[in-house]
Amino acid sequence: MKYFLSFCFFVLLLPMQGQKMNTSKKAIVNSIEKHQTRLIQISDSIWAQAETAFEEDDSSKILADYAQANGFSVERGVAGMPTAFVATYGSGKPVISVLGEFDALPGISQKAQPTKSPLEEGAAGHGCGHNLFGTASLGAAIAVKELIETGKLKGTVKFFGTPAEEKFFGKIWMVKEGLWDDVDVNLSWHPSAKTEADVQSTLALIDFKVEFFGQAAHASADPWNGRSASDALELYTTGINYYREHIKPTVRIHYHIQDGGQVVNVVPDYSRLWVRVRDTKRSGMMPVYERVKAMAEGAAILANVDYKISLISGIYEVLV
User: Fold this and answer.
1) What is the edge-to-edge ordering of all strands in the sheet holding 306-315?
2) Residue 212: domain span
3) What is the C-alpha to C-alpha distance for residues 210 and 236, in angstroms, rounded to an integer?
4) Which tens digit of pLDDT belongs to each residue from 121-160?
5) 43 and 135 both lie in a single domain
6) What is the CATH number of the domain that holds 144?
7) Where are the beta strands (DSSP E) in the chain?
């Protein structure tokens, strides 16, 4: 249990390693010890619920409720997202924010063991440990709150419950809403195979949907009257895969075919795929994105179909 709980205050204590434990650090340890039983229950509950993007109703509620029960003022449904919330305690500067994620991933249901064994075949699961992420971050925020409450620290602490991080990056809309405008420092962590203070960025990325619109026809009786959206999709992904040889080692291109046609004896009139482009910096990602978008037009011309590109979401690299 204590290995899990160490995440709650790791970011607070690591810079002070080697120093004699002062009153504030003792208070942090005591806070985590005091809340450990309930924090573990919350983490286990979020693990069991395994709720995916924008469906984290129970996971969001259990975190927000515990923050409120511990003296935080909680604003729920922020930035137009029902499962996003901000819990605040204190006043004045500095304003410290702590991030908490809690969404699961589809299709990776798993028992708490190192070999593959789904709890429910095909169901969602926590492959990235967001049950730990949200819970331990809340534990850290509560510890800071108690320092403020007892006069050992001045300022404000905010816990940000950020939904849909695996798919739609809920923080983007929270940033657009100005929820971080008054924040002086933001603390975050992520479950990993090792415990360390890691000052690094993550990749910038952009997600978009590509759709091809053709003309259905019977695949045997009159295929010459058909214009295959599936052909366009295959031409498009072939172009992407040939392009991989000519991109920088830092670039990543992913795609997932969401609709390639329904039956074998009909020329498909519709196809769709989800595409993601990444690079270490947005400045490197954008030229690749423009090239990959242009390939969709080329594939559509070759297959004599129409196409549409729709932006899903995107993020800058993490600034550190």
Assistant:
1) 252-259, 270-279, 204-213, 306-315
2) 204-315
3) 10
4) 989 999 888 999 999 999 999 999 999 999 999 999 999 9
5) yes
6) 3.40.630.10
7) 73-76, 85-91, 95-101, 155-162, 185-187, 204-213, 217-218, 252-259, 266-267, 270-279, 306-315
